Amino acid sequence: MNPTGLLLATFILSIAGLFAFIWSLRKGLFDIESSGARTIFSPGEIGQPEEPAASAEQQRELAHIAAPLGAGGNVTPEEMQAREMADRSSAFPAFVLIACAVVWLIVASAAGLLSSLKFHWPDLLTDQAWLSLGRLRTMHLNAVAYGWAPLGLLGLAIWLLPRLLQIPLLGGRLAVVGALLWNAGLVAGLGALAIGINAGMEWLEIPWQIGGLFAVGGMLVGLPMAFMLTRRKVHHLYVSVWYIGAALFWFPTLYVVAKIPGLHFGVEQATMNWWYGHNVLGLFYTPLSIACVYYFLPKVIGRPVRSYNLSLLGFWTLAFFYGQVGAHHLIGGPIPEWLITLSIVQSVMMIIPVVAFSVNQHLTLKGHFSALKHSHVLRFIVFGAVMYTVASLQGSFQALRSFNAVTHFTHFTVAHAHLGMYGFVSMVIFGGVYFVMPRILNVRWPRPALISLHFWLVVAGYAVYMVTLSIGGILQGLILLDPARPFMDSVAVTLPWLQGRSIGGALMTLGHLVFAWHFVLITARSGVLTQADRAALRPTAA
Fold this sequence. Notes:
By secondary structure, the protein is an all-alpha fold. 72% of the residues lie in helices and 0% in strands. The protein is built from 18 helices and no strands. It has helices at 3-24, 56-66, 77-120, 133-165, 172-194, 208-229, 239-259, 266-301, 308-321, 337-349, 351-365, 376-398, 401-407, 411-441, 448-480, 487-492, 495-525, 531-537. α1 packs parallel to α10. The chain is globular and about 75 Å long.
């Protein structure tokens, strides 16, 4: 086998497929008008923002911002009734998933903050084995990776499907059963990790006998979409449906392949480990998050995405190029050099879908940036979209051998992981929850000031976390490359930066507590509104 020829053939095949797809689209990637982009709007809805988390004054400001660029007409009562029926059909399954996600967010935050403190306060809580750093850090990762992030995203996806396909949710009970199985697996899995039962592979620590519940639960949550596609009332499938459908298919496939007992050994096991670790981020969390951005951002500003073809370009190039990027985590390991090079090439090629997405979001928001001052949802969504750009571009450069030589095995990679999973995925989930909960419970957020407090706490904490851990990681890497320096110098240099990491983590955890408390308040308040309140909550064009 000629590695150079294999790499060249793979590259040419990917590029040929990409251009064949582009050729199949109508000409003009930057066309303003696109019927596909208008699928999520009723005929009279464009120009009328929907922001359920905004106050009455903020909604007037948003309407004023959108109006000069073309206001819409009136939405018919039949369309309003159909939209409300769709929202009601998905309310309970979406609420179950999102509520569970909020619980796991608090669990993960507590484990993560305590783990961070132990890096520079090693004598903290050492009497119990399950509170040791090794077990706590693993529990934190799994509570995020299989608790907060997937359940939050799946809850948003279940809520979006009836709106995107314009029919009531089908198979909602299956989604609830899937959520219960998923949570049962997570409870059992974290319990196993706490008592020291660990499969030994990052992102795959939970034993396969328990982890299989994730695959089964994920498939059950995905079945409603399969039922609904054949009965949909829309002729065109909006791009968010593409991303959601792909993610719901990819996750069970990835997890089952990665956890087949007795199949993966030695170096091949390490290769599979990072094939899964990166793909679950890029082919599950990322598509679901992008699907949310492509729905919530246009809805909040009342305008379709600027270039619908760019959104499709981003989808297909993500599918083309992401499959093998994980091997760049094994640079320097005893695996074939051609596989490392293939991973690096595909990592760099990921610039294409990232730029397509980023340019599209910027062009869509152009002329509406002032809406950020008046929309709680938009702040979280746009922040998350920007962090997706930063995280992905950083990841492409981090795959290069010269960059990787400094950052590998350092705290910099931890910062990079949080750039994607927190800055992008979590912020999008926060924004999505603030949008959908008033629709799920038919009640306003009781204390909008808490939404702003939550945003600024997590942004401030996130900034401190990222800056301190990134600097500390680079300094650590430079010392590790210096043969004249003892290893303990690379440990000592990180201590002040790890303390800064804990400060940032504490602010983020405080923001999560504010978010969870507000979630409890809106849940407790549901069902007690007056008719006037309900009328005020109902959007004029939503």
